[in-house]
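Q: Sequence in, structure out?
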Amino acid sequence: MTARNSGTEPPEIQPADPAARRRAILLLLAGAVIGACALWSVQRYLPGELAATDPELYRERLYRAVYALAMLSFAGLLAAGGGLVLLGRRILDADRFPPPGSPLVRPTRVHHGVRARLIGRCVILGGSLLLLGALLAPMLLLELGGALLATAGARG
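A: Exactly. Output:
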């Protein structure tokens, strides 16, 4: 129960936005297509026989593939984390979840006061963790690339 709803009134519901639902579906489809194309291109870019015939070229291509993956992970996590932090700030500023005017993919119960502030802080925390991941993921992937290069060099 919130201060605005003592239990005698039906809960306030913010309706869904059909355009937001379409955008979300298109974004998911675009991500799936980009991921599939990335996997396909890496498979075409790194043929297995290249490791035996030209180990130096193989190492160079392997490093480029890992570097590209690191940059893609950085960009995706950075966008998601930044968006969540901004959403959390909007929730805290409005003292309402979801914030007024937010495009929703499904009807959502509106929360005010303490519950809205708690949701806003949790959203900011989640966004901050994604931003931390955006900083760490490229470093870890480049470290993995270095280990792969060392292994490929030992074989070649």
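The first strand starts at residue 13 and ends at 14.
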